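2024-03-11 09:14:02 INFO worker-7 job=invfold-0412 stage=load source=structure_tokens
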């Protein structure tokens, strides 16, 4: 009975969230202390500077994780709601944080990356996002204007101009060791038209806002955590961590 009640509540939360999203977005935009533009000036977020400074440490830990890419889950295997934009094994993920929930085991595997992430204020999500060659992520938009997203280039194809992201009318190209920040509530899509893999560190953090906006955003995140969207992803993540931990420990033992 309790499980059915939680499921019913979760579905109601999702339906209400879809209806309220437009009004909430307008409120959060009005409460924002940074511009409500698709792409934002990196200088507004000085707390991102250390991840650029230490990007090679992050890249080294990524390389260890990516030594056996088949062991990494596809994005939709963690979050089933992403099946429309994540197909087969073309989009892989290694998650450190999801909506404020820290993956202790994944952070232990990448301690330098985890230490840098811990210093980012109001961090919501963080993961290695890996797009395979000749894959296109269709146009989509994020769930809330209360979160901004940063990308740190880690592994960028040599033909970088043919591996890019469109956010509204702006076209962004990744550079290794460099960040950019955008509002993923705007329409955006990714195209990797090269023969190489593209990998980034993806970060979501709270949009700087005045008190009313911060309160409304906290309430919306709480509601999202009651929904199947969050619970399914958390359950899938825990199951994958169990499998990965066992295989990673075996690999570490063999490598000694």
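2024-03-11 09:14:09 INFO worker-7 stage=emit residues=256
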């Amino acid at each position: 009975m309790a499980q059915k009640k939680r499921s019913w509540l979760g579905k109601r939360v999702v339906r209400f969230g879809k209806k309220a999203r437009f009004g909430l977005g307008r409120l959060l935009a009005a409460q924002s202390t940074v511009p409500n533009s698709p792409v934002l000036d990196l200088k507004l977020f000085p707390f991102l500077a250390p991840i650029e400074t230490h990007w090679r440490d992050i890249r080294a830990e990524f390389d260890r994780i990516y030594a056996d890419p088949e062991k990494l889950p596809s994005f939709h295997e963690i979050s089933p709601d992403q099946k429309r934009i994540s197909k087969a094994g073309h989009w892989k993920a290694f998650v450190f944080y999801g909506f404020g929930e820290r993956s202790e085991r994944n952070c232990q595997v990448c301690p330098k990356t985890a230490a840098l992430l811990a210093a980012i204020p109001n961090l919501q999500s963080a993961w290695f996002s890996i797009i395979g060659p000749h894959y296109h992520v269709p146009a989509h938009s994020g769930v809330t204007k209360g979160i901004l997203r940063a990308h740190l280039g880690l592994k960028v194809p040599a033909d970088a101009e043919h591996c890019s992201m469109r956010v509204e009318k702006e076209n962004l190209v990744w550079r290794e060791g460099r960040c950019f920040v955008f509002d993923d509530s705007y329409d955006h899509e990714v195209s990797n038209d090269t023969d190489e893999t593209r990998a980034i560190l993806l970060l979501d953090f709270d949009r700087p806002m005045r008190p009313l906006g911060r309160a409304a955003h906290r309430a919306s995140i709480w509601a999202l955590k009651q929904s199947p969207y969050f619970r399914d992803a958390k359950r899938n993540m825990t199951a994958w961590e169990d499998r990965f931990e066992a295989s990673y420990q075996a690999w570490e033992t063999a490598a000694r």
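2024-03-11 09:14:09 INFO worker-7 stage=report msg="The chain has eight helices and eleven strands."
2024-03-11 09:14:10 INFO worker-7 job finished
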